[in-house]
Amino acid sequence: MSQLREEKSEKMRYSALHSCLWVMFLLLFHALNVDGNSKGAIQGAKWKPLCTLTADANKVYNRALKLQILITDYTKAATKLAVEAVAAAQKMQNAEAHAAAIGLVAEIREQLKSKQPEIARCYKVAVETPAFIGYTHGRIAEFLEIMGHNRGASNYGYLAQLSSPTSPATDAATAQLSSCKIKPHDITEGPEETEVLTKKGFVGMDHGTGLVDGVLTSSCNEHCVLTSATATALNSDTGPQEDIPFTNGYILKHQTNTARSSQLINSLSKQAKGLPNKGQNQQYVRLWDKYVQLEGCETSFKAGFSKPEAQTLKQSVAVLTALKNIIDNESGEYDLSKDGEQIKTVAEKLFKHGEDNYPEKLYKEAQAKTLRKTLMAGNTATSLTNLETPIDLQIAQMYYTQRKIDGFIAKLKEAEEQLSKDKLGDYGAAAAEHACNKLDGEQKCNTDKKCSYETASDGTNKCTYNASKAKANNVPVAPTQTESAKKTTKKCKGKKKDDCKSPDCKWEGETCKDFSFLVNTKSTLMAATFLSFFKIFHPLFPC
């Protein structure tokens, strides 16, 4: 009986030992299996979009620079067109061109003013977008470099070959990462299209749960400690207690590779409340938002500044206000109910479709290669549109302004010369007669272009004024003084030297003589000259 009990006890001990060994085997097998699955290399299909995104980053740097240049060119073209118009009007020297230039400049100013908020926003976008993608670029590049270079002697590594995405085998880091653009290139303006970062989202980045076993290759890779799901393989104190945000959060590492809530970023769109919330991938969402704004700004400024057309100009309140303020010399914004139709009519007459009308005539004049003399060296003829900077155009404007001044001075000089021709001794027919009477002898008298030696009715010879001879010899003589001038003559006659004062009287020789008609004649000619000048440049608003 005792022997039977011992045999039974031995069987039980054997069975328990067998069960224990079996359990240990199962646990060891499970541990080995978990260890094997959790230490595989990251599949090529999962890390390739990150590699391509580094190349996209370099393209975005170039496009951001291009956007800044587009914005600068836009404002530069608008400013240049305005100065071109003014210079062309100075060159043409007529009232219509002057008024058209005023209207055109006013419209350009208004368009630039309305564009300023967008210019400021897009300049900001051109700076922010490279900053956002630069940060993500650096995070991804660091991860890929570490993973690409951290390989074991058996060619095991963290990044599976792109050609064999399920194999744990890796290439040398140089070949492995050759398609990536880990380091930023020299920035040059360019319009390159991105592949992963698009307006729709991050193409191919369709894994949103972080680093899980399904992202890894199935083959065992004992070297891939950083991707291990075994806590002690990562940290001797049972592993990290916080998720590790590899690649700016896209490959989020939990100590046991437990899946996190899915936060897909391969398809994105703005919501009514703003940007979608993508948890650990929110930095990617913010980057995407900046990129979408970048594309919008590119579209807005790509075409450059457009020349205002006639239809736009004649309907513009800014144009009508400028014509009112500058041409009509009235203050305030144009208001049809208060200012009437006159300004509006002027704008409609000025701005019409076709190259023979404004503003096309200004544009055409600016393109004419007739400009030679500026501050720049050389005599090659050029056009206003070929001048590179607003400063060059201002120099041309000064050139044409000076030509206008020269023309005005020439008119004044002509008037003065006319007055000099009219000045004959005491001036006027009476003065001419007096001057001829003073000449002695027939020869001296007849030599004078306005005098003739004649025999009087009493038989005496006398040198007298010959109006026909003076006219034939182109010697103009002012007409005989008017009654008012005669009265002035009487007023001057008999005055002593100290009392003989201008402007009506002047002491000459031994008598006080009348000079009021000279002043009147000169004033008349000067007034005529100014009126002529005014009519040249301001016929739009007749007095």
UniProtKB/TrEMBL annotation:
Described purpose of this protein according to its UniProt entry: VSG forms a coat on the surface of the parasite. The trypanosome evades the immune response of the host by expressing a series of antigenically distinct VSGs from an estimated 1000 VSG genes.
The regions listed as transmembrane in this protein's record are 12-32
A Gene Ontology biological process term: antigenic variation
Localization recorded for this chain is: Cell membrane
Q: Name one GO cellular component term.
A: side of membrane
Domain named Trypanosome variant surface glycoprotein C-terminal is located at 436-533
SUPFAM superfamilies (UniProt xref): Variant surface glycoprotein (N-terminal domain)
This chain belongs to the protein called Variant surface glycoprotein (VSG, atypical), putative
Signal peptide coordinates: none
Segments forming domain Trypanosome variant surface glycoprotein A-type N-terminal? 23-401
What are the protein's UniProt keywords?
A: Cell membrane, Glycoprotein, GPI-anchor, Lipoprotein, Membrane, Transmembrane, Transmembrane helix
Pfam families the record matches: Trypan_glycop (PF00913), Trypan_glycop_C (PF10659)
Q: Does the keyword RNA-binding apply?
A: no
Membrane topology qualifier: Lipid-anchor; GPI-anchor
